[in-house]
Amino acid sequence: MIVENLRLWPVLHHLSKESLLDIVYLVIYGDKGPSDYGTALYITRNGDVFACGINSYCGKYSMQTEIIKHGGNFLEGSMMVKELSGIELKKIVQSSEFGAGLSANNNLYLWGNASSSIMLGKEYIVMYECYTPDTVCKKCSTSEYSPSTIGGFDLNKCTTCDWYPTYSLQSPNSPQTPVKTFMEFCDMVVVLCSKCGQWCSFVAVGAFDLYYCTPCNALQESIGWCEESTAPRKVQLDHSLKVVDVACGMGFLVLQTASNNLIVFGYLGCNFQGYIDNLDNVVIQNFTCGGHHLAVVTNKGALYTCGDGSSGQLGYDWNEDMGYTTLRKVSLPGTTVKVCCGLSSTACLLSDGSVAFFGGNNAKQSITMLKQYTFIDIACATLTDLFSAKTASSGVYFWRSPTPKLHLKVDACDCIEALLGWPVTYDRALSEILFLKQTLPCNKHGFSHYAEFYGQKQFSDLTLKLKDGDFPAHRIVLFNNSAYYKKLLTESADFQFTDMTSHDPHTYRNLLKYFYQALVKELSWQDLLNLYVLAVNCNENEVVEYTFRRLLDKLDKENIDEITRVAKSKELSALLAECHAQLERMLQLTKNETSSNQESDATKTNQNDTESTLHIRSS
Fold this sequence. Notes:
By secondary structure, the chain is of the alpha+beta class. It contains 9 helices and 40 strands. The chain has 4 domains: about 1-95, no CATH class; about 120-225, no CATH class; about 250-430, Methylamine Dehydrogenase, Chain H (7 Propeller), CATH 2.130.10; about 440-555, Potassium Channel Kv1.1, Chain A (2-Layer Sandwich). The strands form 11 sheets. Strands 4-5-3-2-1-37 form a 6-stranded antiparallel beta sheet. Mean pLDDT is about 85; it is low at about 60-65, about 430-450 and about 610-619. This is RCC1 and BTB domain-containing protein 1. It comes from Lygus hesperus (Western plant bug).
């Protein structure tokens, strides 16, 4: 996209060319169609966030405004959003009534009129003391606590006065008191089990009814909470959760975690809070949300959807009995490269250059294939059913649901420009070259064409200094595939060398192979661990997810102690949590095997005794 063309959106008329070139991420929202009004939030290269347009969702700011004909205040110019500036915000998503932002260090922020309604409030957070031996009851001061095992947790309970010591966020525990944080039952919110994804009931634990999954025998720990305010504020998430991506629909928010989970908050057929049911345990490559549904592209190019399918937007026959939060596979005639969700429809770009389109009608299994051209990109105006697509010959078309009749957009150079005046998201880092890299056919050796330039001086325009020598690199490859280099090259493109001698050269070359999509031999667990640590330090989230999942596959009794030690020393909380969970599973397996062996021995002893008795009687 020609950046200066962003000024064609009326809400950005006031920005100079220099200001437009300074934008690295932009969302325009607030109207369901072309309008002289609307709201924009954008992130600049130095990390500041600005709002312009109708002054809503981000709190009230003292700046000159004008009253517009439909009511409300329209900002004259741009206003810095101080709460979101200087925190390295990397992504903004916006629904009809709330917004969310994700920072480079994976902190989540919420704002807007309805943002407090999509999460359980802090008044529903209850903390229970973990069982601590030889501790006298604080209430009666006569007996020591005994362990009360409920839903997989050992909690302090006084056997004399039948009391559980509890705390709230208003009256918290001391740092020296170990606690577990749970959610008090609220009949207006459905909590989905963190283990099986099914609806939770509740169980009484002392003075509170807590969310509880009966099939899993699991109390539900708190996912997070935030203060009630229309202005931006940080969400207090459970420390074990690492959010790597975020998206939202009309009235719900979805988080993707580093452990391959999707967590939903808000209204998606019901008021939900909890884990999307990933029945097939697919690896999530990326996901997006529509008005009342979401779609997932897996690492193998399969498409899965869930949510409200009453308009056919899920791609399969759906009814309410199937629920709203279980991912199901969509049958398509090819692998999915990219998916866009509209208000009540879905478009998928397939690897052969065709587009599959469904939704916006009552024909729940009707999938229309667009094969008139070879398409290389698609887009959708946010929370609308207006789509656009670009062809290999640079033609740009648009269509509206429910009838995918293509209309040529003569003056548009890409999919975003075809949606002029409508709500859109613009990410400067997402170039067409990145997209072509995903769709270009592999060569006969089975790897990306970028791999041909790995370690080659041909077309090299950047040198990386490694401990074992110089590495000839290519800016366009690193810019499109590395979060670290994208930021570095965005801030300055004048340097010819960058010093990476502080890193292990073998590990760094493995990281570069990932960026170049080169063939990588099966890595040992030690190499995977080193690559994971390096990726975390460099904020390379895709590599983090890639190595994290493969490390978990390689966890065994031979290496778990060393991996746990490294995770603890490097403060890698997500990996450490998985190590502890794996250790618990190993211990439980050992106990089960021991118990089984004891039962087997007892059975054999009984059989021998019976045989001896029969022998004596027969004698």
